[in-house]
Amino acid sequence: MKHRLFAASFALAAALLASSPSFAAGTSGIIHFTGMIVEPPCSFALDTADAAHARVHPDCPRPASGQVAFVDAASLRTIKTTTFTQASRAIALPDRPGNDHAPMIAVVTYQ
């Protein structure tokens, strides 16, 4: 039984490898794109130099504003929401009960 399974697998793999160039040679065409490519206006860096008071630093090379919602990764419950602009210096991560360092998700919404 194992010999037949191996032979069938080998035959299928050989057929796929042999057919790939014929598929690649036959593909051509034009892609039409409507809309725009959007680059996020800000990037965010985590500063953990002071573990007791970790912060997120927004870096916005052009005018931007929005909100950052910190969400508990396990319960998906919003812990804290704060606003930011391109002039914001640092956003403090929310304090957790018992100084818990459980994973969080930062959801950034631009306005």
UniProtKB/TrEMBL annotation:
Record has Signal as a keyword: yes
Signal as UniProt keyword: yes
Signal sequence, start to end: 1-24
Keywords: Signal
Name this protein carries in UniProt: Type 1 fimbrial protein
Organism lineage: Bacteria, Pseudomonadati, Pseudomonadota, Betaproteobacteria, Burkholderiales
